[in-house]
Amino acid sequence: MNRLVIRGARLLGTESADLLVEDGVITEVGSVSTPSGAEVLDADGLVALPGLVDLHVHLREPGREDAETIATGSAAAAAGGFTAVFAMANTSPVTDTAEAAERVLDLGRACGLTEVVPVGAVTKGLEGAELAELGLMARSRAQVRVFSDDGHCVHDARIMRRALEYIKPFGGVISQHAQDPRLAGREACCHEGEVSGRLGLPGWPGIAEESIVARDVMLARHTGSRVHVAHVSTAGTVEVIRWAKAQGIDVTAEVTPHHLALTTDLLLGYDPVYKVNPPLRPAEDVEALRAALADGTIDAVATDHAPHARHDKEHAFVDAAFGMLGLETALSVVSDVMVRPGLLDWADVARVMSSAPARIGGLAHQGRELAVGSPAHLTLVDPDREVTVDATASRSRSRNNPWHGRTLRGAVLATVHRGRVTHDVRNGAGTRRELTTATTSGADL
Ligand SMILES: [Zn+2]
């Protein structure tokens, strides 16, 4: 039997307790005496959270292994405290069949550092014209529940309606990249407003997002099915979601760490590291997003981790690829911009970064409370540790890190996935444990 004792952790930031983990399950909470042969993880003063769950990552495999692989993305996820990540379908080939979904699942299991959950495409080839094999993906070994054409909007209302009807019987959800392609033109590369005017860059307006979200919540009401709004970026979208939830419509939403912290004026230096889709918005939108996460209008934080090879990102602003890294810094950003000012406490962080995304994504074994009988997925956080982000030290294969050089307060020091320590920098960044790739059983912990 594999035994692990986690000593002296503050559960959700409150009282201190020891945890005994046996064969991947929490079997004792309180004052635990160390059984012989048990591994001991000293967590004195650290905040213990249920393992973080990310509804939105791009792992680039298959197809763009020069930017990221499931192995490097899993390592970045473990370093960021994540025990499950949802891998978006815009790979090459696209995850639009049962076989493709199972391949992603299997590659993730072979790495064993985090649970890699495939997201299925809504439409074949992400082309927006014909529904993908939603039912076959749902019935496959990968048991796909989250479907998204992310990178593209499911802009055809009829296709969106059919998809919502199709997934309803098996409890699926459509995660929508809300962006009307007619309002947000192909050339658009930043928020439409004062800054885009000054830079002479084609912008895309908040209404391109808001109008699709408004339509989709009405389609969710009409079909009685479930919509999830990916990467909410404007105050107007928050208003629509707040209204929809008040009507009892089954809608959930996520916000990225970068939309909670970074504003559109960063683009004044034309640095493509800040080029992202949806774009960075003005400060008043950032304020509204923080308030919405704090009051529960936005359910979850999701990174939209989007690695890009240098030759795709280091271009003139208009030509550079959209996207930023996010897995390794997410908790630190949330700690810095939400916990430190008192907008969220650690129990709230557990909700928005673990239990809510697990529920939205249909993962019954993730995001559970730190109690006897729960699978041992945990993240240990030092709330006071200041970290200065170094893009060159990333586990990701890519370096498009907008946080490089910034100092953030709050850091993940260790991650436990299925009772196994997958990340540990408690003794300083230089003493990271060597991680071996596990040959996992495939048991659904
Ligand atoms: Zn997207």
From TrEMBL:
Keywords: Hydrolase, Metal-binding, Pyrimidine biosynthesis, Zinc. Substrate binds at residues 58-60, 90, 277, 308, 322-323. Signal peptide: none annotated. The keyword Metal-binding applies. GO terms for molecular function: allantoinase activity; dihydroorotase activity; zinc ion binding. This is Dihydroorotase. Belongs to the metallo-dependent hydrolases superfamily. DHOase family. Class I DHOase subfamily. Binds 2 Zn(2+) ions per subunit. It comes from Terrabacter aerolatus. Its EC number is 3.5.2.3. HAMAP family: PyrC_classI_B. Pathway: Pyrimidine metabolism; UMP biosynthesis via de novo pathway; (S)-dihydroorotate from bicarbonate: step 3/3. Zn(2+) 2 binds at residues 150, 177, 231. Zn(2+) 1 binds at residues 56, 58, 150, 304. It comes from the Bacteria. Residues 47-234 form the Dihydroorotase catalytic domain. Catalyzes the reversible cyclization of carbamoyl aspartate to dihydroorotate. The gene is pyrC. The active site is at 304. GO terms for biological process: 'de novo' UMP biosynthetic process; purine nucleobase catabolic process. Its cofactor is Zn(2+). It catalyses: (S)-dihydroorotate + H2O = N-carbamoyl-L-aspartate + H(+). It is an enzyme of class 3 (hydrolase).
